[in-house]
Amino acid sequence: MSLLYISQQLIRYLGSFILIIGIVGDGINIIVFSSIRNYRTNPCTFYFLVAAIFNFLYIAICHSSRIVMNGFGYDLTRISISWCKIRWFIVYTLGLCTLTFSCLATIDQYFATSQSAYLRRLSNIKWAHRITIIVIIIWCLHNILLLLFYSIPSGTMACTITNSIFAAYIPPFYLIFVCTLPVIIMALFGYLAYRNIQLTRALSEQQADRQLVKMTLIQVVLVAVCIGPSGINNAYGLITSGVSKGTNRLSIEDFTTSMVVLISFLYFSGSCYMFLISSSRFREAVKGRILFWLRSNQVVAVQQPINEAETTNNITTSTIDATTTKTTIRTTETRIVITSTTKTTTSTTSTNSHTTTMNVSKLNKWKQNAITVAGGNGQGQKLNQLNRPDGIFFDKNKNILIADSLNHRIVAWKYNAKKGQIIAGGNGQGNRMDQLDWPVDLIVDQQTHSIIIADFGNKRVIQWLNQKPHLLIDDIKCNGLAMDKHGFLYVSDAEKNEVRRWKMGEYNNEGIIVAGGNGTRNQLNQLSNPTYIFVDEDQSVYVSDYHNHRVMKWRKDAEEGTIVAGGNGEGANLNQLCLPQGVIVDLLGQIYVADQSNHRVMRWREGKEEGEIVVGGNDGGSESNQLNDPTGLSFDDERNLYVADWRNHRIQKYEIIL
């Protein structure tokens, strides 16, 4: 059995298997990265998308033709000069482009995770679009030389380079730009990006970036394992180019070259499967796409009256006028509602810190162009600036209290003020009692008129009373705070994946677990990095279950929660959330959630399969109708909606119009 026969059989059967898994895997990458908004608008994953498209084309064109040539013996490049030129142009252009985009994804992740504001600004989707076009143009222009110098010399049946200078140029070019530089660039910037996230205190951002870093680092492994042997073989060819070789040696070298080429195709077909192994977010996205496809043809007709009083307990209702019937025809993407009247409830309550006396309607709408009421003057530490604002709170005097997280301070902006006032922290990042380290949320205790702060980086909850800080709870990775009408304090713990409750003034104990505390998976009795929380009149706790992409409701003394928003995997469909943050609930039990990575605020009614976009949802950006990673939410007395626009370093006010 000759080496040529073994080579043909391996290319025919193993090559066909690689072709199939490559088409499927690259197809999955294209669908996931193009259909989910937060992937499309992220520069790193945009590069992944473009690389997936080029990988798909490479596998479909170059690898399939290699199987036909070496596996079945039908080599069109030996008889068609046009195909000889075009095939090599396609091979080099697609291969160089996909390797370049993988390098750019790694470099972008280094920029995105940097502590330097200047470098972070370089991670920009508009720049990614432009750079993509430039890269394609550069490699197409470079590879025009292949169209000029590849041909079939007269008297032969071999597609080869006919220019001696170009023939001497190609092997070292291939060794440097295909086999060496991509590994060095991706390994270097992948390591730097990983080091960046190790220095980042914000768990929510760190975990999201960590998974992207893993996805970029896995590309380093693919390049090293799959393209590396080709580089070694290429270097061997350069070194032994002047050596006289016998028939057996040439046969071994031809066999080795065929196997090296076969291994190289694994790089262009294997990224999807590596992403599935390395990233839970990507797995959830793939699962969401599959579930969406399975449910896409399901149509359910529902007829229900709307004359029921859909309000929460202990709410005093003055007028309800609703006697009509609505018919809803629901699919996974469309909803048609036929109705003739609406109902409005006027209610008064003093429940959670985010709710006051106001008019509530199931059809409340807000202007889509927001007004900036705090920050908006760039990222910085001046009094007219913010740096990654998180939790926000409205006091009775219409002051906005803001957890200015990366400035390590709490600031208050008075109504129509041009700058804020520091009311806690502001003495640099640190663990002294007069310092904060990444405060992420705050509430006001109306009884003592004190501010309670989730001091995330210092793993503590502190109280500022009359400008004096007091330690309430220590050794807790607090992500969110809430207080019920009885004065009980609720704190979410991102490290233990639970929410605990303490009685006011009795903080010298471990508190009582009211949600989670059963591990970090996605069962109904579990949470995964809980962030913001809200407590209603019945002491039910609503939790933004960040890494499970859902909002959970835990009734008082319940052993497990119920999903009231999201829970259908990570995604941008109306039945999905992607890394939810701020959550508040109105008097009708409608849940408002900051859908962070989808750059929108959603409203969900408990028991409904889908939510609706309230504001945002126009991709991540800095225009007045856009948000970029929204976090904290709050309402004022007039029902205007306020959103902490995290990456735009501003607080946006959306005025109510209905």
TrEMBL record:
NHL repeats lie at residues 621-657. This is G-protein coupled receptors family 1 profile domain-containing protein. It comes from the Eukaryota. CDD domains: NHL. The chain crosses the membrane at residues 12-34, 46-69, 89-111, 131-152, 172-194, 215-239, 259-277. One of its GO terms (cellular component) is membrane. Pfam families: NHL (PF01436). It is found in: Membrane. The lineage of its organism: Eukaryota, Metazoa, Spiralia, Gnathifera, Rotifera. Residues 25-278 form the G-protein coupled receptors family 1 profile domain. Keywords: Glycoprotein, Membrane, Repeat, Signal, Transmembrane, Transmembrane helix.
